[in-house]
Amino acid sequence: MNQSADFFIRSAVTETTRSYMGGLMTFLVTSAETDNRLMLLEVRTVPGAEPPPHLHYNEDEVFYILEGELEVYCMGQVRIARAGETVFLPRMHAHAFYFLSPLRFLALAQPGGLDGYFETMSNPATSMEIPATATTYADSEPASAIALAAKYGVKMLSPEETAELLPQYPGFGLSRLG
């Protein structure tokens, strides 16, 4: 029997958490720990910290919502995911979302491999509180994120591509809160 991974138990603590684009991202299971089969994160974030519309060439994503609400745009549909619900985002399909409230969710990517992107785009967390003044995608220079994402098989969509692939999406950086 070929054993390629070690057994472990891990929780969301500062030592395994990074400050990422306006929220916190805990690496619960890394790609390196699974021979690149999957990656599992716990994400804590707030409205306004959404990533730009994008698609993954290599990974399917699964989000399990622990707390809060997420408005999801994918495959011509708009859905609201709430605590206790699961979102499946298939590879090669553009998607975008709005965080409708403070949000905590598990994010599984299969296969793994995105860890390097998230590590490069983040800094070690100093606490388990979401930083109040953290840089988000909406207020950062996009060129470096676009180039880095491409290296990891993720395409950040231009406004024109977003309008074509996600016609119901109101636009990146717009508030969805009334």
Outline the structure in words.
With 178 residues, the protein is mainly beta. It has one domain: Sandwich (Jelly Rolls), CATH 2.60.120. The protein has three helices and twelve strands, in the order E-E-E-E-E-E-E-E-E-E-H-E-H-E-H.
CATH architecture: Sandwich
CATH class: Mainly Beta
Low-confidence stretches: none
Radius of gyration: 16 Å
Strand order of the largest sheet: 8-5-10-3-2-1-11
Q: How many β-strand stretches?
A: 12
How much of the residues is beta strand, in percent? Answer: 35-45%
Structural category is: mainly beta
Report, as a whole number of angstroms, the end-to-end distance: 56 Å
Helix content: 10-25%
Could you name the key traits of this structure?
globular, mainly beta, Jelly Rolls, single chain, 36% strand, 13% helix, three-stranded antiparallel beta sheet, 178 residues, seven-stranded antiparallel beta sheet
